[in-house]
Amino acid sequence: MKVTDPREFGRVAVLLGGRSAEREISLKSGRAVLAALRDRGVDAHPVDPRDDGIAALFGGDFDRACIMLHGRGGEDGTIQGALDWHGMPYTGSDVLGSALSMDKLRSKWLWQTLGLLTPRYALVTDDTDLGALASDLGLPIAMKPAREGSSLGMTKVTNRDQLARAFADARALDSVVLAERWIVGAEYTASILDGDVLPLIRLETPRTFYDFDAKYMANTTRYHCPSGLGAEHERALAKVCLQAFEAVGASGWGRVDFMLDESGRPWLLEVNTVPGMTDHSLVPMAAKVAGLDFGALCWRILETSFVERGSA
Question: Which pTM value belongs to this model?
Answer without folding.
Answer: 0.91
